[in-house]
Known about the structure:
Elements: H1 2-31, H2 42-55, H3 64-76, H4 81-93, H5 97-110, H6 112-125, H7 130-144, E1 148-149, E2 152-153, H8 154-164, H9 168-186, H10 193-205, H11 209-222, H12 227-239, H13 243-258, H14 279-283
Antiparallel strand pairs: 1-2
Helix pairs in contact: 3-4, 4-5, 5-6, 6-7, 6-8, 7-8, 8-9, 8-10, 9-10, 10-11, 10-12, 11-12, 12-13
Amino acid sequence: MIHMKSTSSFKLGLFILAMVFVVACNSKIENEVVPKPQSYTVFETDSIVENVMYSLRGLGINSQKRRNALDSVIKKYPTIANFYQQRAMPLYKEDKDELGKPFLEKAAELNPQKYLDYKGFMECIFSKNYTASIADFEKYLEMFGEGYVMDHTYYFYIGISYLQLNEFEKAKIYLEKSIDQIEKNSGMDWVHHLDLMYLGIAYLELNDCESAIKAFDESLSKYPSFGDVKYYKAGCLYRLGKTDEALKLFDEAKEDILKGNTINEDNVVYERYPYQVRKVWFAHH
């Protein structure tokens, strides 16, 4: 009996010792501090970005060498948003939006003031994700207020996104806001011909041809050979029963567009803009 009791006590002691060891190990794991990615001052970030981008010179923007180099840079500096944007941008320009989007989302997450509006622009013009674009710009406006990206106001991109979603009254409201912002900040001379073109299209879609023509005329005063605007204005004239005037303007529109007098944004080499008249259509008519 004494031997059995001693054996039981010994086993109990081993069990308690084992449990103490497990608890101690778990406590060590729980209390272990996982190092956070390093953060940098604005000055440090600018210096790092400048040096890295200088080191990437000479590498083709779509080359595998540049992608690999940026992947290494991101691993080394995971909190610097610029490198995620640089990784994303060439993919979007190759129509590989699905591959580029995680990098762009990370850039906007790390530095929303610098990249959330850029993401909204990319969603609108490149990915055609208009609901996402509207959400990005509305969030930016709430966080940081009015501004510009790629030479246009945030209201401009919200407006053309609503055009593409067939919500024409909302499109008109936001395009008018865009024009009002520019006029307030810089004067009417600085209102862009595209703001006026898209406002005219919003009126056209709302069957207000007279207001549309007024906006189109203002756009043409800034860009007299703008073939797309002439095309849509010709459509308005035709609806108003001004057939001869409409046909004459249609011929002018055809001539201008075939000459390349169309939407002249930098990114038209990559993407067709909303309501941009297709040159190939005119080539067969």
